[in-house]
Design a protein that fits this description.
Shape: globular
Strand content: over 45%
Number of strands: 34
Number of helices: 15
Helix content: 10-25%
Distance between the termini: 37 Å
């Protein structure tokens, strides 16, 4: 088949020009995306093999219980991302790599307190907890580190994808559809299924190094992957991955350094080499992480297979906290001090199972999966000022306590095809699941929790500590087939029983009609259910800054009842989607999927609820803090609480677009093209009433509302071209992020809006195959060193006036979808064998 030549299609570099267009007029950029898609279909040269990114002709195992289904033929929207595509992003971790190539998946740029030590991501603009993560189709355990940083990722305690080495991944299947009836709780936004490599021979060794253009973030990585035979009938694929990343600091000037009265009381900080940038809190955490993984299988006979896979990771990390003035404890820190929160984390997961055929017609799969995340939380370069005042001595390093989360899941799955006179046999599948979840907080050492505790991060007290568990059993049934050749029907129902929330039933119906071999329509309606995570129910801690101390109050506590909140209820959801699939050529696919996700009783973090210091305070807040057993620093200006509640009902509407194709341009080489876009908007359909004990304060202030509705970009466009000619490969991606906005306040009363304007971020990697086995690459993420719009100047001015460094030094919005650090340049080498 021949096509007329397109000038745009001949020049991959033309995609980068869209960055200039995007910064002037985002609507023109969207129009340009449509023109790009048209131009790709009008190219003059022969089409070749499909691109790795979004390859729709690969057989999938996610979103269907049928075998042999290709992504392009699925009744539900699903995108495949090849492991080589993830590696070519230049990102050292899986979250960063996925966010580069999948527009509906937005990564967290930075976090507050321990949230900066375990970053997360959101799918389709809703909570990280509403996305289920599978590895080889089996449920992955969650992190023990709950995000309580008052952001769009508030309450996130999902699976930590960064403990899965990119080098171990064959491909990733992302199902963007409600799938609670198929896979159970968590699958409201969709499912991310990571398929590990199964190669029984060969492998690769890879290493990379890079840093941010404006300094910091020095990164070094190394990985090795290899496949080996297990006898004549088995395989084992092993991966080892090593990463090291240094701090970055993007803080603005510390207002205390520029305040004459403060300087007069603390003259020694005037000689600091960092003056006036004394506070280093705003930037990346430093970490060292080592992860090993194994994937194996063994064929016992023609109908029976054993399998096992595992990951084991070790991570140490630290992140800066707010600078403390010399006047705080001059006998120990005459020049003041920058405390650090630290983490020493061990993450482990193991799945063992067997599968095969029974009576030649039935397929069966029996498996057991155990995962555990253990985190030792510490504080360095700190002091307990109350302890020093009482005894004349204080440690400078503290053990603040431990977070522990574990999950043990057993699955039994059965299936067979039944001929009932349809165009295709009816695929019948059923199964059982049994799961036990545990969550634990261990108290810190005595010095960390004495009175107000260790500075910057008080240790967990005995009233914070506890061990909590839940059991869950489920049964499902799934039917799929084609009554007539053109129509596919997939229906699923699931019954679940929770030890703490009782019974629930959910269902899903998907239809697809192929009008021609080129054009098809598909749609899904489903219901969902998500029980609160144990961390959302029971997490308890005190979060402090130089001017404030806020208690994260457990919703199930006696203190919560004082402020009118009595525990959490499960979320319930309805998901609707309608899509178009077009295959104009053998290697070109266009998909467009509209969706609507309604969530009732959505679990959200409250705004800041003040007990003292603000112009509006609630006495019940102070009583709740006392009932919870927390002792606060008496020197702070503001005190209060944050708490998780079933605070709102939400409706999220969106559109996902994907176009992929590939062309051979003769002597000019071969290009894999891709263009994808995501539109997403969340609205609050109901805000639940604030308990009388907290009024006139609002349970959700403007900042908390913005976390839910406006902090994710409404539009993300990804344009990509992988150009291969001779021994060279050029991978060019243009990620265009639409506006996002949030609200901030210095005093909890007056709020200021910050809007990140549309930005186009260019990512480029140039590789040369020096030999058949050796490849060297140089690349850049954010090639032109773009930064998000700065925080509203009025908010910064208010913080400077109040001498509040915790607000003033954060000069960029932490919800920036492309980070706060600017450009990152790297070099990468790979040797395959």
């Amino acid at each position: 088949m021949s096509y007329q030549r397109s000038t745009l299609a001949l020049h991959p570099i033309s995609i980068a020009v869209s960055s200039l267009i995007a910064q002037k007029n985002f609507k023109k950029t969207l129009a340009g995306t449509g023109l790009l898609m048209l131009s790709l279909q009008s190219g003059a040269f022969a089409q070749t093999t499909p691109p790795n990114d979004g390859n729709t002709n690969t057989v999938i195992v996610t979103g269907t219980r049928q075998t042999g289904v290709k992504a392009v033929d699925s009744s539900s929207p699903i995108q495949l991302i090849d492991g080589s595509v993830l590696e070519a992003t230049g990102q050292s971790d899986l979250i960063g790599a996925l966010s580069q190539v999948f527009p509906s998946f937005v990564a967290q740029a930075t976090g507050g307190d321990t949230a900066n030590l375990t970053l997360s991501a959101r799918l389709r603009g809703i909570s990280p907890n509403d996305t289920l993560v599978l590895v080889n189709g089996k449920r992955r355990h969650t992190t023990a580190n709950l995000s309580v940083d008052g952001s769009a990722f508030q309450g996130g305690a999902a699976a930590d994808l960064n403990f899965i080495p990119i080098a171990s991944i064959d491909h990733v299947e992302v199902l963007t559809d409600g799938a609670a009836a198929q896979y159970g709780t968590d699958a409201i936004a969709g499912v991310i299924n990571i398929i590990l490599k199964k190669d029984a021979s060969g492998g690769s060794i890879s290493t990379s190094g890079g840093r941010y253009v404006d300094g910091g973030g020095n990164t070094a990585t190394a990985s090795i992957n290899g496949g080996f035979e297990l006898g004549e009938n088995g395989f084992i694929n092993l991966t080892a991955d090593f990463k090291s990343h240094d701090h970055s600091v993007r803080s603005g000037p510390d207002p205390r350094a520029l305040n004459l009265a403060t300087a007069a009381k603390n003259p020694t900080f005037l000689t600091s080499p960092d003056f006036p940038y004394l506070d280093r809190i705003f930037g990346d955490a430093a970490y060292h992480q080592n992860v090993a993984s194994a994937n194996s299988g063994y064929k016992i006979d023609a109908e029976t297979n054993l399998y096992a896979f595992a990951t084991l990771g070790k991570k140490t990390a630290d992140t800066y906290e707010n600078y403390r003035l010399p006047s705080k404890i001059p006998a120990v820190y005459p020049n003041g001090f920058n405390p650090k929160e630290t983490i020493d984390e061990t993450d482990f997961a193991l799945t063992v199972g067997a599968k095969g055929k029974l009576f030649h017609d039935w397929t069966w799969d029996v498996s057991s999966t155990y995962g555990k995340d253990l985190e030792h939380i510490g504080v360095e370069n700190s002091a307990n000022i109350a302890l020093f005042n009482a005894t004349g001595a204080t440690p400078t390093t503290f053990h603040a306590g431990n977070f522990v989360a574990s999950q043990w899941t057993q699955n039994i799955d059965l299936g067979r095809e039944i001929n009932i006179g349809w165009a295709t046999p009816l695929n019948f599948a059923t199964g059982l699941e049994f799961r036990t979840d545990k969550y634990e907080i261990d108290a810190g050492d005595a010095a960390s929790s004495f009175q107000a505790g260790s500075s910057s991060y008080p240790g967990f007290q005995s009233t914070d500590a506890g061990t909590h568990s839940r059991t869950n059993s489920a049964a499902y049934i799934d039917l799929a087939g084609s009554p007539v050749k053109e129509l596919k029907v997939d229906a699923a129902a699931r019954f679940e029983k929770y030890s703490d929330f009782g019974n629930t039933s959910v269902g899903k119906l998907s239809l697809r009609y192929d009008f021609t071999p080129v054009v098809a329509l598909r749609g899904t309606i489903s219901s969902g259910f998500r029980a609160p995570t144990l961390a959302e129910e029971y997490y308890s801690a005190t979060n402090v800054s130089p001017t404030s101390a806020f208690v994260q109050l457990p919703p199930n506590s006696a203190g919560a009842r004082i402020v009118g909140i009595d525990g959490l209820k499960p979320e319930k959801s309805n998901n609707y989607s309608f899509g178009l699939v077009v295959q104009p050529t053998r290697t070109s696919t266009l998909t467009a999927d509209f969706y609507k996700i309604d969530i009732r009783d959505r679990i959200v973090g409250s705004g800041s609820l003040y007990g003292s210091g603000s112009s509006v305070n609630s006495p019940a807040v102070t009583q709740a803090i006392a009932a919870n057993g927390n002792v606060l620093d008496p020197s702070v200006t503001y005190t209060g609480i944050n708490i998780f509640t079933n605070g709102v009902d939400t409706s999220t509407k969106g559109l996902d677009l994907l176009f992929t194709t590939a062309y051979n341009y003769g002597d000019y080489g071969h290009v894999d093209w891709s263009a994808s876009a995501a539109y997403n908007k969340t609205e609050l359909t109901k805000i639940h009433s604030t308990p009388a004990q907290l009024q006139p304060q609002l349970l959700l202030d403007q900042s908390a509302v913005g976390d839910l509705t406006t902090e994710s970009p409404k539009v993300v466009v990804n344009l990509g071209a992988l150009w291969k000619v001779g021994s060279w490969a050029v991978n060019l991606r243009e990620n265009i992020y639409g506006p996002a906005s949030g609200w901030g306040s210095e005093d909890g009363t007056t709020f200021y809006q910050t809007t990140i304007h549309t930005k186009a971020i260019t990512n480029l990697e140039i590789a040369n195959h020096l030999t058949k086995s050796l490849t060297v690459s140089v690349g850049a993420t954010n090639l032109f060193n773009q930064y998000p719009t700065r925080i509203n100047g009025d908010l910064t001015a208010a913080a400077n006036k109040a001498n509040d460094a915790s607000v003033a030094v954060r000069i960029y919005p932490q919800y920036s979808p492309f980070g706060i650090n600017g450009g990152y340049y790297y070099v990468r080498g790979n040797y395959s064998f």
